[in-house]
Amino acid sequence: MTDVKGFFYPRTALGGSSLIPDPPWFYSGDLLTVEYRTDPARVAELLPAPLEPAPEDPGAVALIWADWQSCSSSREELLDPVRSQYKETFVVVRCSFEGKTFSRCVYIWVDKDFAIARGMHQGYPKKLGTMWQTRPHPFHNAAPQIAEGGIFGATLAAGDRRLAEAVLTLREESDSNGFVNSHPMAHHRIYPGIERGTPDAYAELISSGAAEFEGGPAWKGDVDLRLFESPTEELARLGVDEIIGGYYRQVGVTWDGGGSLAQRSATEGWKAVRA
Amino acid sequence: MTDVKGFFYPRTALGGSSLIPDPPWFYSGDLLTVEYRTDPARVAELLPAPLEPAPEDPGAVALIWADWQSCSSSREELLDPVRSQYKETFVVVRCSFEGKTFSRCVYIWVDKDFAIARGMHQGYPKKLGTMWQTRPHPFHNAAPQIAEGGIFGATLAAGDRRLAEAVLTLREESDSNGFVNSHPMAHHRIYPGIERGTPDAYAELISSGAAEFEGGPAWKGDVDLRLFESPTEELARLGVDEIIGGYYRQVGVTWDGGGSLAQRSATEGWKAVRA
Amino acid sequence: MTDVKGFFYPRTALGGSSLIPDPPWFYSGDLLTVEYRTDPARVAELLPAPLEPAPEDPGAVALIWADWQSCSSSREELLDPVRSQYKETFVVVRCSFEGKTFSRCVYIWVDKDFAIARGMHQGYPKKLGTMWQTRPHPFHNAAPQIAEGGIFGATLAAGDRRLAEAVLTLREESDSNGFVNSHPMAHHRIYPGIERGTPDAYAELISSGAAEFEGGPAWKGDVDLRLFESPTEELARLGVDEIIGGYYRQVGVTWDGGGSLAQRSATEGWKAVRA
Amino acid sequence: MTDVKGFFYPRTALGGSSLIPDPPWFYSGDLLTVEYRTDPARVAELLPAPLEPAPEDPGAVALIWADWQSCSSSREELLDPVRSQYKETFVVVRCSFEGKTFSRCVYIWVDKDFAIARGMHQGYPKKLGTMWQTRPHPFHNAAPQIAEGGIFGATLAAGDRRLAEAVLTLREESDSNGFVNSHPMAHHRIYPGIERGTPDAYAELISSGAAEFEGGPAWKGDVDLRLFESPTEELARLGVDEIIGGYYRQVGVTWDGGGSLAQRSATEGWKAVRA
Q1: D232-257 burial string, b = 16+ CB within 10 Å, else e?
Q2: Which of C112, C168, D54, D178 is deepest in the core (most CB within 10 A)?
Q3: Separation CA B236–CA A129 (nearest Å)
């Protein structure tokens, strides 16, 4: 009997083809975060069972641009950076499960396939998109610094359409980089049934967060945000009622797996996993 | 309790964001197929339990380029072709399960995210790549025809590296478009355990094939194939020992789900699904 | 003294690096054309000296999507189709020079670098963009045919923004594929002065057209066209006042150089070239 | 008579479509440089009239990766970074004109159209490619620092083929960032004749360099470089006989035009421009 190897598909005899390597996964990157409030009903409608809305500030949304370099324990991806660098834009809300508050990514676009595969594993609902964020640089000729007055732009597109644009002007250091994305994530992992009309073959609620985290000084500032309609996206349905704040922070993160919160069976519905 | 909609993620209240719509899925496209024999042991090592090598010609491999236009029942993707057109290159071998022969895709590269998501559902181990194949056209200025003497080139790259190149010169009409990809597919669908070091949280062997199929005349001809090494791929490990043939065919396909062949449980291992 | 070779840059000792080979250049492709009338003043403002507006129907505009396969005399690009296939969308108006009517491309977006370089040579003002047009195919599953009732969509984007969308429904065969793009092209070729604030170092008005042309049956039909604003484009300034028609045609084209119509000198201004 | 505006094509009534704005152009970016010696004859064969080989170390070559953010005086591109960020890899040699030593870019690949257009103006022979270089970041999780032991990878591809790979390990601060790219550039600007078989319609030798330059500390280190064959490139012809050094430096640059060194006329050949 063949023993194929590889964390993810394709699995092979040697394990060298897997789209993503074994965790832990390591990340160094820059985060541009816009937090705002939308109609809480629009957040609630994105929270399937067994989740419930967060008890406080249930309409809070974080739209986050991230410019990453990432690698596995071998660090070999860093020397072939097409396998290491990627960008993403994602939308985070908060929710509640068994009385505990979680963050939850409801939309996310990335620009590499390995990032899609990591997202499958972690329950991030990833699509491909193109996203750009102004980079800080020591020389001012064509770059801001992470300092008072630094101006950063960020854009998101998918399917050849602009979906979002933000402009952030840094004002001062901040105690935090926002609060919406600060909890462990609660994500669904699903596999639709292969036979037409059948329920999901697999459904699990998992939780994960950073195994290690380091961050530079967080900065906050004034931010403008525009969301655009698209026939394939519902991002604009999370309309901006009130801006909470804009933030910029450089971070280092290690991810090393998560845990199962609940699983759904055909006969018993959702059932929490007890440690 | 929120009832989110959508065949695949992200699921929402309205269901308009799902990366892929409900089946059936419809395809019109051109297939350039190269069939060859490799060391049967190199095929066998890609067949995990509960699969076994095919009883006849177990080293046969098909490397297939496909240039597709696809849509759902609404056909709306056809009017926004960024959502409809995609290309793929895939490697098919044969295997056996409970005495029946199946085809099996062991490697596949595509150039759109909706194609990746369909592959997740169908058990195709999709990565992003760039693939090109010469197109036939009524005017000869810069195109072959599907006719004697027509020459078609095809290339595959991923991670900024060439992986494969083929040149096919059509000689005559053919009874078939090859035999390796002619069975129902037997594919694994897997979800690695979210906790580090745990076994797959989900593992299923599914089968699927075309619900409807139409094809134009198949042509066969002389073919050259070159495979190249890459640190992230093991395609070249399926070395070309003997060319079987090259084929070209235009086809129309409808896919409308499949069926479960076997499921793995932690306690009992693989267990066939009985209809 | 070194004698470097190559039609275009980079020129080298062997000539194998040139971004484009020597003409003639050969093309096989499909054209989706939308013709409409805009304010003639908006066309006139795009016609610099020594051009003047066309005497008849001076507000007529053609917006054309083209899906090409192309090659040089060696035809080697056809076997490495990344060097052969490209798409483009371009805007054509008409103008007059010395009493003769010419077509003129005022905006054009392509998706390959060799197409940009050809455009430099031919005076097409090419930018990169992403453009898609529905493809006809013998099998109806996910494709129209070039026949009554066939529906074709077309989109254009640049800089991550949609610029144009069209939907064409074929009704009947047509005597022509439109009239706006039917004259020889009159294009400027310019080189800005390398020193800041100096006039163009080079300015020439050239003309070119197809050395050979074959076309299948032209079809006409009902067409919808939408143009969108962008901070880097002025396409939407050519607003749609009245649709003239929509057309679809498959063509084969050979291009083999053009001729100089006029040249500008610093002292004498524009001076026509006499044959 | 219409007075069209815009530094480069397309020129329009308002000037908002030009692929590139008026200089000055501003750049902030990171340079990874590999210097080596090749056969001087291979450099000499890339130096057309009126250039001659550099008198000292005529086989010296610099292969440079640059990760740029750039903008015009308005700085508006920085807030829409798809218009601001780009990467490039370029090959520089040295040459001599009228007894003065110049640097000269003989090959260059970029990943944006505005960079191609700037190159047309400045005489850089730009093609599209994909290039990646490891980025430094304050957090070590998945990034080196610009410090002893920092390891940086760099790759170049075009036409779906790898062309070059380098790995640089920083050892110590350096007085310079290399010497090959340290002179004013001497570049040809050419326009092939539009009529088949005619000589260039325009040929000029221009010089330009940075109007302003700032640089952080330069670092040097051990470097490996591999060049690969491609049917459309001659980079590998500049084979690596001896590594001179590897360098890393962050810089800020302003470019504001250049000057004409010589022009070629049909009757008199090359003639130097006297200030």
Answers
A1: bbbbebbebeeebbbbbbbbbbbbbb
A2: C168
A3: 31
Helix (H) or strand (E) holding D43: helix D40-44
What are the tens digits of pLDDT across the range D216-234?
999 999 999 999 999 999 9
- Contact flag C17-D234 (C-beta cutoff 8 Å): yes
* Dist CA D273 CA D260 (whole Å): 6
Q: What is the pTM for the complete model shown?
A: 0.98
Are A199 and A193 spatial neighbours (Cβ–Cβ below 8 Å)?
yes
Question: What CA–CA distance (Å, rounded) separates B169 from A150?
Answer: 60
Q: What angle do CA B109, B115, B117 make, to 5 degrees?
A: 110
Instruction: Compute the distance between CA of residue D184 and CA of residue B90 in angstroms, rounded to an integer.
Output: 50
**Among C133, C138, C155, whose Cβ lies nearest the Cβ of B250?**
C138
**Cα separation, B176 vs A162, whole angstroms:** 45
> Within 10 A of D220 (CB to CB), how many other CB atoms are there?
23
Q: How many CB atoms lie within 10 A of CB A187?
A: 26
Beta-strand relationship, A151-158 and C25-37: unpaired
User: Would you state the pLDDT for residue B191?
Assistant: 96
Q: Which residues contact B21 (CB under 8 A, 6 or more apart)?
A: B7, B72, B73, B74
Partner residue facing D194 (CB), from C12, C206, C234: C206
The rounded distance, in Å, linking the Cα atoms of A137 and D66 is: 13
DSSP string, chain C: -B--B-SSSSPBSS----SSPSSPEEEEEEEEEEEEE--HHHHHTT-BTT-EE-SSSTTEEEEEEEEEEEE-TT-GGGGSGGGTEEEEEEEEEEEEETTEEEEEEEEEEESSHHHHHHHHHHT--EEE-EEEEPPP-SSGGG---SSTT-EEEEEEEETTEEEEEEEEEEEEEES-S-STT-SPEEEEEEE--SSTTPPPSEEEEEEEEEEEEEE--EEEEEEEEEE--BTTB-GGGS--SEEEEEEEEEEEEEEEEEEEEEEEETTTEEEEPP-
Q: What is the pLDDT of residue C1?
A: 54
Question: Cα C56 to the chain's mean position, in Å?
Answer: 21
Listed residue (C143, C144, C141) closest to B252, CA to CA: C141
Residue C187 with chain D: CB contacts under 8 Å: none
Within 10 A of B175 (CB to CB), how many other CB atoms are there? 6
Round to whole Å and give the CA distance between D264 and D270. 4
Q: pLDDT digit string (tens) for A74-122?
A: 999 999 999 999 999 999 999 999 999 999 999 999 999 999 999 999 9
Residue where the block lists tokens 């509640």: A96
Contact predicate D203/D189, CB 8 Å: yes
- Residues in D lying within 8 Å of B, measured between beta carbons: 130, 132, 155, 157, 160-162
Pairing of strands D218-227, D130-133: unpaired
CA distance C115 to B143: 17
Taking only the tens place, the pLDDT of each residue in A242-272 is 999 999 999 999 999 999 999 998 788 999 9
Contact D16 C256 (CB under 8 A): no
The alpha-carbon gap from C118 to the nearest alpha carbon of chain A, in Å, equals: 25
Residue contact B252–C82, C-beta within 8 A: no
Whether residue D50 has a cis bond before it, omega within 30° of 0: yes
Contact C259 D3 (CB under 8 A): no
Task: Write the CB contacts of C233 (distance below 8 Å, at least 6 apart in sequence).
Answer: C107, C158, C159, C163, D16, D17
Q: Neighbours of C (≥3 Cβ pairs closer than 8 A)? A: A, B, D
Distance CA A254, CA A26 (A): 5
ipTM value greater than 0.85: yes
Q: Are strands A85-97 and A52-53 parallel, antiparallel or unpaired?
A: antiparallel
